[in-house]
Amino acid sequence: MGRVSKRFDRIEKLILNAQLPKARRLLHRLSRRISDRSNQLNRFRTLAVSLGEEKMALKVSRLLVKRSPNNHKHWVQLIELLLHLGKTKAALRRTEKASNSIVLQIFSELNHPALDARWPSLKTSDTPADFQTLLAVMRRHDFQQASELLEATLQTLQAAGKTGQLQRLQRWRAQIKASCHTQELVRTWSTSFELPPANNALVEVPSPPIVQYWAQGPLPKELHYIQHRWKALLKPQGIIDWVLFDRDAALAWIEAEAPQFLISFHSAFHFAVEADVFRVAYASRMPVIWLDVDLFPTPSAGRFLRRALNRGVTCLFTRPFAPFLLNGFFSSSPSCRFVQMLAEQCAGIDFSVLPKTGRTITSTYGCDRFNKVLAELCRQPHRQDHMVLRGDNWGIQFANSKSFARSKPPLAYRNKSPWQTACTDR
């Protein structure tokens, strides 16, 4: 193992042991010694992102694009960082130097207004209707055209025997059908890729606390760097209160404040199921910003959350390729109709009479339940109000796992007891 690799290992170990100032100092020293080899640059970028050193990550991203100009992943990472740092003009200049096929992939993954200038030329390109093309078309609000292209592409892939691509698009089609309930919803969800300005002013709207759940002893040191990153981004936005519940504290809170969820909490067959129950119980009684402990923020996450709080609406978390809800993050108040319907449908569920399967988890308190409630709301009169989906006495804004926070942190935490181990179908 080379000297530089050993230093990378040491910095990563320091980060995972929550020794962040020392890790940052060593990374700055190492920045003067790394070569332009892709493997070293990629690892340096990962460590810089983990520590919140976006300017260092940006410098390395530029080198990666220069070294591998046809690598779409490097392009996306570069444009993404430029946009998060408020360097919109620089992002647009960069896209002008890339080929149409790469810009189409960038557009489909980021969908920032800065890239709109390239859309007319992309519409007439000869790029085949692959996943990126379909996604870009759908995010341009041309849902009908995207649907027609998707069906034609599925038939082409099936005839060509391309099983892997076919299965990927079939899964996407299933999530589209499960989440794209109305055109107003799709259009509102598309705005979740619009990043707030880097210099947006703080508006003093009271913030609810960040609430998290961890029932496996003390929070592992490997997750401290994630919390540190969140706090660094949220504190300037006036979001400073954090509450971490363990199982005993959560149980005592439910007994005192929301006893109708006790049977669900007591019968939950895994820590992750307990967390699902507790987040719904807490939201039914108190204003809350819920964050899963392993959710990692993008550089503009603090400004994004502040923008939602200033509007006084619920903010829900989706996948980046469909308005399919995830439950790893949300901000809400008990007066929100979405939260009220969610609580009404979940309270009293007894897991002891249900099969211990992944399907049980998602359909009771998990993502499928969240999507079911949103679908029911969308059957009522509603409209798009720019970034907010509004109905009678309710409003919802969306965040997604590309522009707001990532479901997988840069330095992955290895859970010793994942929820899949408790399921008979996994």
Low-confidence stretches: none
Determine the strand fraction and express it as a percent band.
Answer: 5-15%
Please tell me how large the radius of gyration is: 22 Å
Number of strands: 10
Please tally the helical runs, counting DSSP H or I stretches of 4 or more residues. Answer: 20
Structure description:
The chain is an alpha/beta fold. Helix content is 53%, strand content 10%. The protein is built from 20 helices and ten strands. The protein has helices spanning 3-16, 20-30, 38-50, 54-67, 72-84, 88-96, 100-110, 119-123, 131-139, 143-160, 163-179, 183-190, 224-234, 247-257, 262-267, 271-285, 301-311, 337-346, 358-364, 367-377; strands at residues 210-213, 242-245, 288-291, 296-297, 314-318, 325-332, 382-385, 388-391, 394-400, 405-406. The chain has an eight-stranded mixed sheet, with helices on both faces. The mean pLDDT is 87.
Short description, anyone?
It is built from 20 helices and 10 strands. With 426 residues, the chain is an alpha/beta fold. It is globular and about 60 Å long.
Walk me through the topology:
Layout: H1 3-16, H2 20-30, H3 38-50, H4 54-67, H5 72-84, H6 88-96, H7 100-110, H8 119-123, H9 131-139, H10 143-160, H11 163-179, H12 183-190, E1 210-213, H13 224-234, E2 242-245, H14 247-257, H15 262-267, H16 271-285, E3 288-291, E4 296-297, H17 301-311, E5 314-318, E6 325-332, H18 337-346, H19 358-364, H20 367-377, E7 382-385, E8 388-391, E9 394-400, E10 405-406
Parallel strand pairs: 1-2, 1-3, 5-9
Antiparallel strand pairs: 3-6, 4-10, 5-6, 7-8, 8-9
